[in-house]
Amino acid sequence: MPLPPLFRLLPMLPCLLLGANRPVSAATAADPVAGTQATVALLETTDLHANVLSYDYYKLKPEPSIGLARTATLISQARAQYPNNLLLDNGDALQGTALADYQARVAPVPCGQLPAIYKAMDMLGVDGAGIGNHEFNYGLPYLNQVTGSAFDVDGVPAGTPRCAGPKFPIVLANIDSKRTGKPLFAPYSILKRQISATGPDGQPVTATIKVGIIGFAPPGILAWDKRWLDGKLVARGVRETAQKFIPLMRAQGADLIVALSHGGIDGAPYTPDMENANYYLAQVPGVDAMLIGHAHLPFPLAASTVPQFSLPGVDKTRGTVHGVPAVMASLWGKHLGVIALHLTYDGQHWQVDKTRTTVEARSIRNADGSYVAADPAMADLVAAEHEATIRYVQTPLGSSDFRMSSYFADVGDVSAVQLVNQAQTEYVRRYLQANLPQYASLPVLSMASPFKTGAAGAGDYTDVKAGALALNNAADLYLYPNELHAVKVDGAGLKAWLEKSAERFNRIDPAVTAPQELVNTGVAGYNFDMPTSADISYQIDVTRPVGQRIVALSWQGAPVTPGQQFVVATNNYRASGGGNFPGLDGSRTVIAAPDSSRDVLIAYIRSAKHLTRASNGATRSWRFAPVQVAGPVVFHSAPGMLAQAAEAGLTSVTELQPDDGSGKGYALYAVDLAQ
């Protein structure tokens, strides 16, 4: 388990912590001499999204692949490896789980207490933190309270008491109060530390180093959280803000400057409102290392196929951007970023030896597929909050008069898909009207897929019974932790999208009398995207080769033309190239919403209150092109579910065998393509 903060600090006693909200006693150390060498490790967490424990509050069960409780084990290991270290968080810590929602909205954390994620970070001895876009999701008064701040900004009443905050300094340089014109948080902090080093004679020495940390958030927060921030804050561009403050940090004695930049990498031309500006931040003189995030990806990763990680000047193997060491620790505690800076003192300054500096994104998953052990102390620390949250997610959101399942999604049951599409469509329409009026006149549709289609066995299907709906049911409908994105495509692109989805099916030969498998199991169910709108219709002709299967594609009764324009709601995975869909590589994204797809769905259910099959689970946009086949066309699903097919109107489905003999619990079904 991780060492307590006191023991963790023994190898590197803090001398002075400028800009922090805690006093730190001073210590003395001899000035290093030229030729002195040391290694200082920067340990990064980012995009934790309030995942304190390895638990999924929507599925109501443990989830070993996530959680700061497991990252804590990696932190302990890294500290043992690198006694000189700083643990830094790169933002998006406060929001993202039912636990966070509970503490912010349902049972707000009192002024004298911390939210669970900050309690855990304090227990781990975090040295400093940045601010991400999701920190603003609960509004400025809440952010002011839990960070222990005293914001001078409209929206936070004068005289608001200063509440408990975490023990580490929080920095943010490019978001200002509109009232004062000054940064909302301290723009930077300089951490003065004693470190263990090696003198030029090879003998161990103690030396002093000052590490400056500066924070950046995406300027897009003003649009994403407009309801909270409009007229209250001003966002500055990342590059020009860095150019302003880094010389000041150097003048105040910073030996190293570490950017906590809550953004990813984007090679598009720089603009001050750029969301992922780190490609340009790395080119600002004086930046020694970057802790990045927001994109929810591990970096470095040599095998990554993400286009932005292959930009000129980006080394996805060594972990550098224009030569600057950079790390991104994925999300939800799945990774720990580790930059081991090898330093040499030249007589006046500490210099980074880039040839010996290493960068890693260390996973909590072991090579054998198991996960590192969780720190049990963390579960004890937040036990009360955890149990209260579990009770919270069991509270109904609304109700449904029909069963939503994916047992027959491959043959046309949309009961587990339509609700997602409806929620996404409504969100995107409202977003366009409020923020992107240039696209507001375009037709909007949504693509969603049946996420659970039996890949792991007969129990691996979405199945939400009729009756009361709770938060955990919404997670069954939307399995993955995606964000809602929208892309602009033309009619040709829309058809290509649907053609790619239709690869879910094998090619059927009408003349064959032997059974033919309908589903191509090499194409995952989550890549079978489909719209569910009365405005769009098409057929899938499974007798045709791949790429030629979509026929009679129409919009509001008229054939879709190649140049016709659409805005399509989807998720970040698909919009950025996930599944290798043609034309979807991130370049067509017009909305990268600040809200997760699951949260959008939850909000829609709450608003609708009562769901009906007629309104929310029976609108099919696609059908198989009718064809008479000499033999049976078969597929596999859970046994005893034929009634669900009937309720969905799938009279073409029959159950051939209650056990298909696979040993996975499936039954064998047939579909009549002539109907």
What does this structure look like?
The longest helix is centred in the middle third of the chain and has 18 residues, at 418-435. The protein is of the alpha/beta class and 675 residues long. The radius of gyration is 27 Å and the shape is elongated. The chain folds into two domains: 5-343 and 356-388, Purple Acid Phosphatase, chain A, domain 2 (4-Layer Sandwich), CATH 3.60.21; 397-624, 5'-nucleotidase,  domain 2 (Alpha-Beta Complex).
How is this fold's topology laid out?
Blueprint: H1 5-9, E1 14-17, E2 37-45, E3 55-56, E4 61-62, H2 68-81, E5 85-89, H3 98-106, H4 116-124, E6 128-129, H5 140-146, E7 175-177, E8 188-198, E9 204-216, H6 221-224, H7 226-229, E10 233-235, H8 238-251, E11 256-261, H9 278-281, E12 289-292, E13 298-299, E14 314-315, E15 320-321, E16 324-329, E17 335-345, E18 350-352, E19 358-363, H10 376-381, H11 383-393, E20 396-400, E21 404-405, H12 418-435, E22 444-446, E23 463-464, E24 467-470, H13 471-477, E25 483-490, H14 491-501, E26 516-517, E27 536-540, E28 550-555, E29 558-559, E30 565-571, H15 572-575, E31 589-596, H16 597-608, E32 610-611, H17 613-616, E33 622-624, E34 633-637, H18 642-647, E35 653-657, E36 667-671
Parallel strand pairs: 2-5, 5-6, 9-11, 11-12, 12-16, 20-32, 22-30, 26-34, 27-33
Antiparallel strand pairs: 1-8, 2-17, 3-4, 7-10, 8-9, 13-16, 14-15, 15-16, 17-18, 17-19, 20-24, 21-23, 25-30, 25-31, 27-28, 28-29, 34-36, 35-36
Helix pairs in contact: 3-11, 12-16
